[in-house]
């Protein structure tokens, strides 16, 4: 009896593993090519400076503040996180195919943390999708597309809205389990309204962004 | 001729404007220190509105926040941001309470070095005890409208992030009117205090968050 229960447990675990890594059946592979901004709408806006209320739960620390995205020249933009009290926590320089932490507040400035933040911001901003070779799956019945790319042994799966190029969700899967999940919501102006990223498993990291619509004073 | 007159007028105007804003070293710092120490001793509570402008130099971008601030001896501080969103941070002795949306978070001050440093700077700037601190090299400056203290961090862990802090006092030295924190990247935050109430009744409940 015990052996039978153990076998059942192994079988059901295997089934969960197989189904969790698979592309849902309603999506059919349509083509394989480079994914561009015409397929999926980029999240950063060249013409708008964006400001987000931000919560970062990193290991056992909780940071809140505002995340600002601004284009500085035709090829570069910056993502800057500032606490409510005005202290700059990090500044990430964004280029077309790469992003780099150019400043990190001293107590946070540890390679493990800066690498993780770079990776997660890259994931939120679709760096593992846009301009990468990937597979495009189509659900013709519901008008949804799904994009899959692979990098460093990880599978990146991106879901778009019905009849739209706007992203709704992304999943990062390792060999066995889902590692990260990001959920996006867009506003009526076609710009991202909220983004939430959560790591699954042992790594305790969550990022929540909510857009602030404010009147800014500029020189 | 008209051009010349306009040029002279422009020069005079520029010089007078410069004279109003530029700061010179204070010759007699003893009296100023005494005055600051006196307000430090006499100030038991302080309430004020504030406008905080964060300038990100490299991005030529400013982020403006507004709110209300309360301080009460000893070591009770409340920053309530009302714009661009509601956010309250209370420091009650060795506890840090944060209300963000409807969520309340509690921390022990000593468990978070960042909070501890920020709290120490804020409270000692407001109650004037920063003058006795050995964490900063202090310079004293003045113009015709204000006194300005230039605080340069000396301790490791602070000087890497913070280049200097400017504290502004009105000429009568009644309280801090403005704080300016300049980071190592030349980004800076200016906090302007307005509608100040010194030694008014600040209820103890202000420093409790539920």
Please supply descriptive tags for the structure shown above:
heterodimer; A: alpha+beta; outer membrane lipoprotein receptor (LolB), chain A; 13-stranded antiparallel β-sheet; 13 strands; 16% helix; 46% strand; globular; B: alpha+beta; 12-stranded antiparallel β-sheet; 12 strands
Task: Report how far the terminal alpha carbons of chain B are from each other.
Answer: 71 Å
- Major sheet details of chain A: 13 strands, antiparallel
Percentage of residues in helical conformation of chain A? 10-25%
Assembly type of the chains comes to: heterodimer
Task: Report strand % of chain A.
Answer: over 45%
Rounded average pLDDT of chain B: 84
The CATH class of chain A turns out to be Mainly Beta
Strand order of the largest sheet of chain B: 1-8-9-10-11-12-2-3-4-5-6-7
CATH 2nd-level architecture of chain A: Clam
Count up the helices of chain B.
Answer: 3
**Main β-sheet of chain B, in a few words?**
12 strands, antiparallel
| CATH topology term of chain A | outer membrane lipoprotein receptor (LolB), chain A
Number of discrete domains of chain B: 1
- Under CATH, the topology of chain B can be stated as outer membrane lipoprotein receptor (LolB), chain A
For the record, what is the CATH homologous superfamily label of chain B? Lipoprotein localisation LolA/LolB/LppX
Low-pLDDT parts of chain B are 5-19
Architecture overview:
The complex is a heterodimer of chains A (219) and B (210). Chain A is of the alpha+beta class. Chain A has one domain: outer membrane lipoprotein receptor (LolB), chain A (Clam), CATH 2.50.20. Chain A has helices at 2-21, 111-124; strands at residues 28-34, 50-58, 61-71, 77-83, 88-94, 99-104, 133-139, 144-151, 154-160, 167-173, 178-186, 192-199, 205-211. Chain A has a 13-stranded antiparallel sheet, with helices on one face. Chain A is globular and about 50 Å long. Chain B has 210 residues and is of the alpha+beta class. Chain B has one domain: Lipoprotein localisation LolA/LolB/LppX (outer membrane lipoprotein receptor (LolB), chain A), CATH 2.50.20. Chain B is 23% helix and 45% strand. Chain B has 3 helices and 12 strands. A 12-stranded antiparallel sheet of chain B has the order 1-8-9-10-11-12-2-3-4-5-6-7, with helices on one face. Chain B is globular. Mean pLDDT of chain B is 84; it is low at 5-19.
């Amino acid at each position: 009896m015990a052996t039978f229960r153990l076998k059942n447990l192994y079988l059901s675990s295997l089934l969960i593993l197989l189904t969790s890594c698979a592309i849902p059946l309603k999506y059919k592979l349509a083509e394989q090519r480079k994914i561009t901004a015409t397929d999926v709408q980029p999240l950063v806006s060249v013409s708008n400076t964006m400001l987000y209320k931000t919560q970062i739960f990193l290991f056992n620390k909780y940071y809140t503040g505002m995340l600002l995205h601004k284009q500085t020249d035709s090829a570069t933009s910056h993502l800057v996180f500032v606490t409510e009290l005005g202290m700059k926590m990090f500044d990430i320089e964004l280029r077309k195919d790469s992003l780099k932490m150019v400043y990190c507040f001293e107590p946070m400035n540890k390679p493990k943390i800066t690498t993780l933040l770079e990776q997660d911001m890259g994931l939120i901003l679709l760096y593992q999708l846009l301009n990468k070779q990937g597979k495009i799956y189509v659900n013709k019945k519901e008008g949804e597309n799904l994009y899959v790319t692979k990098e460093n042994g990880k599978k990146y799966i991106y879901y778009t809205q019905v009849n739209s190029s706007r992203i709704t969700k992304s999943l990062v899967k390792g060999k066995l389990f889902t590692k990260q999940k990001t959920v996006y919501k867009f506003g009526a102006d076609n710009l991202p309204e909220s983004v939430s990223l959560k790591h699954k498993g042992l790594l305790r990291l969550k990022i929540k962004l909510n857009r602030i619509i404010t009147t800014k004073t500029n020189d | 001729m008209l051009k010349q007159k306009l040029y002279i007028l422009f020069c005079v105007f520029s010089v007078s404007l410069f004279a109003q804003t530029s700061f010179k070293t204070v010759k007699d710092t003893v009296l100023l220190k005494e005055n600051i120490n006196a307000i430090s001793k006499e100030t038991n509570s302080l309430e004020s509105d504030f406008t905080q402008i964060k300038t990100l130099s490299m991005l030529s971008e400013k982020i403006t926040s507004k709110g209300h601030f309360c301080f009460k001896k000893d070591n009770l501080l409340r920053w309530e941001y009302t714009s661009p969103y509601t956010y309250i941070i209370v420091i009650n002795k060795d506890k840090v309470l944060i209300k963000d949306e409807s969520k309340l978070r509690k921390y022990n001050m000593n468990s978070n070095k960042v909070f501890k440093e920020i709290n120490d700077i804020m409270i000692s700037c407001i109650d004037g005890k920063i003058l006795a601190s050995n964490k900063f090299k202090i310079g004293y400056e003045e113009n015709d409208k204000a006194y300005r203290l230039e605080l340069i961090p000396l301790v490791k862990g602070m000087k890497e992030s913070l280049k200097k802090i400017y504290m502004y006092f009105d000429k009568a030295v009644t309280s801090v009117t403005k704080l300016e924190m300049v980071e190592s990247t030349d980004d800076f935050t200016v906090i302007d205090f307005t509608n100040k109430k010194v030694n008014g009744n600040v209820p103890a409940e202000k420093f409790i968050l539920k």
